[in-house]
Amino acid sequence: MNSRAASKLRRLRQRFGIGAPRVAIRRHIPWYWRVLSGIVLVAAVAFILWGYETFYLRTRLTTAHDQEESLREIQSLRNHVMELDRELTKLRGMTSTEDSRLQIEKTTLQQLSEQVRALGIENAALKQDLAFFEELMPSATLGDKTGFKINRLRVEPGKNNGEFQYRMLVVYNAGRHATPKAMQGRLRLIVKIRQSGKNATISIPTKSEENTERFLFELKSLHRLEGVFAIPQDAILRSVEAQLLQDGAVRAKQSVVF
Description:
Layout: H1 2-16, H2 31-136, E1 147-157, E2 163-173, E3 183-195, E4 198-204, E5 216-219, E6 222-230, E7 236-246, E8 249-257
Antiparallel strand pairs: 1-2, 2-6, 3-4, 3-5, 3-7, 7-8
Protein backbone atom coordinates (compact mmCIF):
# COMPACT_ATOMS: atom_id res chain seq x y z
CA MET A 1 0.00 0.00 0.00
CA ASN A 2 2.74 2.41 0.97
CA SER A 3 4.80 1.39 -2.02
CA ARG A 4 1.88 2.07 -4.32
CA ALA A 5 1.30 5.50 -2.87
CA ALA A 6 5.00 6.28 -3.12
CA SER A 7 4.98 5.24 -6.76
CA LYS A 8 1.99 7.53 -7.54
CA LEU A 9 3.61 10.36 -5.67
CA ARG A 10 6.82 9.94 -7.67
CA ARG A 11 4.89 9.99 -10.95
CA LEU A 12 3.08 13.13 -9.89
CA ARG A 13 6.39 14.80 -9.03
CA GLN A 14 7.84 13.82 -12.42
CA ARG A 15 4.80 15.26 -14.23
CA PHE A 16 4.15 18.43 -12.26
CA GLY A 17 7.40 19.02 -10.41
CA ILE A 18 10.57 20.88 -11.37
CA GLY A 19 11.77 18.05 -13.55
CA ALA A 20 8.43 17.81 -15.39
CA PRO A 21 8.59 18.34 -19.23
CA ARG A 22 7.71 21.79 -20.62
CA VAL A 23 4.26 22.27 -22.01
CA ALA A 24 3.47 24.84 -24.81
CA ILE A 25 0.09 26.40 -24.78
CA ARG A 26 -1.12 27.20 -28.27
CA ARG A 27 -4.16 29.07 -29.44
CA HIS A 28 -6.51 26.93 -31.39
CA ILE A 29 -6.83 28.10 -35.08
CA PRO A 30 -9.57 26.71 -37.22
CA TRP A 31 -8.50 24.65 -40.20
CA TYR A 32 -10.15 26.90 -42.82
CA TRP A 33 -8.04 29.89 -41.62
CA ARG A 34 -4.97 27.75 -42.03
CA VAL A 35 -6.01 26.78 -45.57
CA LEU A 36 -6.79 30.41 -46.42
CA SER A 37 -3.38 31.54 -45.08
CA GLY A 38 -1.67 28.92 -47.25
CA ILE A 39 -3.57 30.08 -50.33
CA VAL A 40 -2.65 33.74 -49.63
CA LEU A 41 0.99 32.81 -49.16
CA VAL A 42 1.06 30.81 -52.40
CA ALA A 43 -0.67 33.66 -54.26
CA ALA A 44 1.81 36.19 -52.89
CA VAL A 45 4.76 34.07 -53.98
CA ALA A 46 3.17 33.56 -57.41
CA PHE A 47 2.52 37.32 -57.73
CA ILE A 48 6.10 38.12 -56.79
CA LEU A 49 7.42 35.59 -59.33
CA TRP A 50 5.09 36.95 -62.04
CA GLY A 51 6.07 40.52 -61.29
CA TYR A 52 9.77 39.66 -61.41
CA GLU A 53 9.42 37.81 -64.69
CA THR A 54 7.34 40.62 -66.18
CA PHE A 55 9.85 43.28 -65.06
CA TYR A 56 12.76 41.19 -66.31
CA LEU A 57 11.13 40.58 -69.69
CA ARG A 58 10.17 44.25 -70.04
CA THR A 59 13.69 45.28 -69.10
CA ARG A 60 15.15 42.92 -71.66
CA LEU A 61 12.71 44.05 -74.33
CA THR A 62 13.39 47.71 -73.53
CA THR A 63 17.15 47.09 -73.55
CA ALA A 64 16.92 45.21 -76.84
CA HIS A 65 14.76 47.98 -78.31
CA ASP A 66 17.19 50.64 -77.05
CA GLN A 67 20.14 48.71 -78.48
CA GLU A 68 18.37 48.36 -81.81
CA GLU A 69 17.49 52.05 -81.78
CA SER A 70 21.08 52.92 -80.85
CA LEU A 71 22.38 50.77 -83.70
CA ARG A 72 20.04 52.54 -86.11
CA GLU A 73 21.19 55.92 -84.81
CA ILE A 74 24.86 54.90 -85.13
CA GLN A 75 24.29 53.65 -88.67
CA SER A 76 22.44 56.86 -89.53
CA LEU A 77 25.31 58.92 -88.13
CA ARG A 78 27.82 56.84 -90.09
CA ASN A 79 25.86 57.41 -93.28
CA HIS A 80 25.69 61.14 -92.53
CA VAL A 81 29.45 61.27 -91.89
CA MET A 82 30.10 59.43 -95.17
CA GLU A 83 27.86 61.90 -96.97
CA LEU A 84 29.70 64.81 -95.37
CA ASP A 85 33.04 63.26 -96.39
CA ARG A 86 31.83 63.02 -99.98
CA GLU A 87 30.65 66.63 -99.87
CA LEU A 88 33.97 67.72 -98.35
CA THR A 89 35.93 65.88 -101.04
CA LYS A 90 33.75 67.47 -103.71
CA LEU A 91 34.20 70.93 -102.18
CA ARG A 92 37.96 70.43 -101.94
CA GLY A 93 38.06 69.50 -105.60
CA MET A 94 35.98 72.54 -106.49
CA THR A 95 38.21 74.74 -104.31
CA SER A 96 41.34 73.37 -105.96
CA THR A 97 39.84 73.97 -109.39
CA GLU A 98 38.75 77.46 -108.36
CA ASP A 99 42.21 78.22 -106.95
CA SER A 100 43.80 77.05 -110.19
CA ARG A 101 41.39 79.17 -112.21
CA LEU A 102 42.05 82.20 -110.00
CA GLN A 103 45.80 81.64 -110.29
CA ILE A 104 45.51 81.45 -114.08
CA GLU A 105 43.37 84.58 -114.13
CA LYS A 106 45.82 86.34 -111.83
CA THR A 107 48.76 85.37 -114.03
CA THR A 108 46.87 86.40 -117.16
CA LEU A 109 45.89 89.71 -115.56
CA GLN A 110 49.48 90.33 -114.53
CA GLN A 111 50.69 89.59 -118.05
CA LEU A 112 48.03 91.88 -119.49
CA SER A 113 49.04 94.60 -117.03
CA GLU A 114 52.66 94.25 -118.12
CA GLN A 115 51.61 94.39 -121.77
CA VAL A 116 49.46 97.45 -121.11
CA ARG A 117 52.35 99.11 -119.30
CA ALA A 118 54.75 98.27 -122.12
CA LEU A 119 52.24 99.49 -124.72
CA GLY A 120 51.74 102.68 -122.72
CA ILE A 121 55.48 103.32 -122.67
CA GLU A 122 55.77 102.54 -126.37
CA ASN A 123 52.77 104.73 -127.14
CA ALA A 124 54.30 107.61 -125.20
CA ALA A 125 57.55 107.13 -127.10
CA LEU A 126 55.71 107.08 -130.44
CA LYS A 127 53.88 110.26 -129.51
CA GLN A 128 57.19 111.91 -128.69
CA ASP A 129 58.67 110.69 -131.97
CA LEU A 130 55.62 111.92 -133.88
CA ALA A 131 55.83 115.34 -132.25
CA PHE A 132 59.49 115.50 -133.18
CA PHE A 133 58.78 114.45 -136.76
CA GLU A 134 56.17 117.18 -137.03
CA GLU A 135 58.72 119.70 -135.81
CA LEU A 136 61.34 118.30 -138.16
CA MET A 137 59.26 118.35 -141.37
CA PRO A 138 60.56 120.13 -143.27
CA SER A 139 64.00 120.07 -141.75
CA ALA A 140 64.34 123.75 -140.95
CA THR A 141 66.11 123.37 -137.62
CA LEU A 142 69.34 122.16 -139.16
CA GLY A 143 68.91 123.73 -142.59
CA ASP A 144 71.96 123.05 -144.75
CA LYS A 145 74.11 122.35 -141.73
CA THR A 146 75.22 118.71 -141.74
CA GLY A 147 75.74 116.71 -138.61
CA PHE A 148 74.15 114.73 -135.74
CA LYS A 149 71.59 115.85 -133.24
CA ILE A 150 70.08 114.22 -130.14
CA ASN A 151 66.43 114.94 -129.53
CA ARG A 152 64.08 114.06 -126.63
CA LEU A 153 66.49 112.28 -124.29
CA ARG A 154 64.53 110.46 -121.58
CA VAL A 155 65.89 108.57 -118.55
CA GLU A 156 63.43 106.68 -116.34
CA PRO A 157 63.77 104.17 -113.47
CA GLY A 158 63.80 100.53 -114.56
CA LYS A 159 62.12 97.47 -113.08
CA ASN A 160 64.97 96.60 -110.71
CA ASN A 161 66.56 98.73 -108.04
CA GLY A 162 69.50 100.68 -109.43
CA GLU A 163 68.43 100.23 -113.07
CA PHE A 164 67.49 103.07 -115.43
CA GLN A 165 66.11 103.03 -118.94
CA TYR A 166 67.24 105.60 -121.50
CA ARG A 167 65.59 106.57 -124.77
CA MET A 168 66.49 109.15 -127.39
CA LEU A 169 66.03 110.05 -131.05
CA VAL A 170 69.17 110.55 -133.10
CA VAL A 171 69.00 112.76 -136.21
CA TYR A 172 71.52 113.05 -138.99
CA ASN A 173 71.20 115.87 -141.49
CA ALA A 174 73.10 115.59 -144.73
CA GLY A 175 71.84 118.98 -145.98
CA ARG A 176 68.84 119.99 -148.03
CA HIS A 177 70.31 119.04 -151.39
CA ALA A 178 72.64 116.24 -150.36
CA THR A 179 71.89 112.61 -151.05
CA PRO A 180 71.39 110.80 -147.68
CA LYS A 181 73.90 108.09 -146.96
CA ALA A 182 74.34 105.76 -144.01
CA MET A 183 76.46 107.16 -141.21
CA GLN A 184 77.94 105.11 -138.38
CA GLY A 185 78.54 106.21 -134.84
CA ARG A 186 78.78 105.14 -131.22
CA LEU A 187 76.79 106.10 -128.15
CA ARG A 188 78.38 107.03 -124.84
CA LEU A 189 76.64 107.90 -121.56
CA ILE A 190 78.30 110.03 -118.89
CA VAL A 191 76.46 109.22 -115.65
CA LYS A 192 77.05 111.34 -112.56
CA ILE A 193 76.06 109.92 -109.19
CA ARG A 194 76.45 110.63 -105.48
CA GLN A 195 77.51 107.71 -103.30
CA SER A 196 78.52 107.68 -99.62
CA GLY A 197 78.50 111.50 -99.57
CA LYS A 198 80.86 111.76 -102.55
CA ASN A 199 80.29 112.61 -106.22
CA ALA A 200 81.38 110.11 -108.86
CA THR A 201 81.23 109.77 -112.64
CA ILE A 202 80.55 106.57 -114.55
CA SER A 203 81.29 106.22 -118.26
CA ILE A 204 79.02 103.79 -120.12
CA PRO A 205 80.04 101.69 -121.91
CA THR A 206 83.32 100.67 -120.40
CA LYS A 207 86.30 100.16 -122.69
CA SER A 208 85.60 96.44 -122.87
CA GLU A 209 82.00 97.16 -124.02
CA GLU A 210 82.66 99.93 -126.55
CA ASN A 211 82.26 97.65 -129.57
CA THR A 212 79.11 95.92 -128.38
CA GLU A 213 76.17 96.15 -130.75
CA ARG A 214 73.81 98.01 -128.43
CA PHE A 215 76.13 101.03 -128.31
CA LEU A 216 76.80 101.17 -132.08
CA PHE A 217 74.35 102.67 -134.59
CA GLU A 218 74.01 103.34 -138.30
CA LEU A 219 71.50 105.81 -139.73
CA LYS A 220 70.64 107.90 -142.74
CA SER A 221 68.29 110.38 -141.15
CA LEU A 222 66.54 109.17 -138.00
CA HIS A 223 67.23 106.44 -135.49
CA ARG A 224 65.91 105.71 -132.03
CA LEU A 225 68.35 104.51 -129.41
CA GLU A 226 67.23 102.92 -126.17
CA GLY A 227 68.62 100.62 -123.51
CA VAL A 228 69.26 100.06 -119.82
CA PHE A 229 72.16 100.97 -117.56
CA ALA A 230 72.74 100.33 -113.86
CA ILE A 231 74.33 102.22 -111.00
CA PRO A 232 75.16 100.99 -107.46
CA GLN A 233 72.01 100.42 -105.45
CA ASP A 234 73.11 102.78 -102.67
CA ALA A 235 73.94 105.59 -105.13
CA ILE A 236 71.77 108.56 -106.18
CA LEU A 237 71.55 109.49 -109.86
CA ARG A 238 72.38 113.17 -110.45
CA SER A 239 72.59 113.57 -114.23
CA VAL A 240 73.01 111.68 -117.51
CA GLU A 241 74.70 113.06 -120.62
CA ALA A 242 74.29 111.22 -123.92
CA GLN A 243 77.09 111.68 -126.45
CA LEU A 244 77.24 110.66 -130.10
CA LEU A 245 80.79 109.85 -131.21
CA GLN A 246 82.14 109.48 -134.72
CA ASP A 247 85.78 108.66 -135.33
CA GLY A 248 86.44 109.21 -131.62
CA ALA A 249 85.08 112.79 -131.63
CA VAL A 250 81.87 113.97 -129.95
CA ARG A 251 79.44 115.07 -132.70
CA ALA A 252 76.36 115.75 -130.54
CA LYS A 253 75.31 115.61 -126.92
CA GLN A 254 72.34 116.21 -124.67
CA SER A 255 71.89 115.81 -120.92
CA VAL A 256 69.16 115.45 -118.30
CA VAL A 257 69.51 116.49 -114.66
CA PHE A 258 67.71 114.91 -111.67
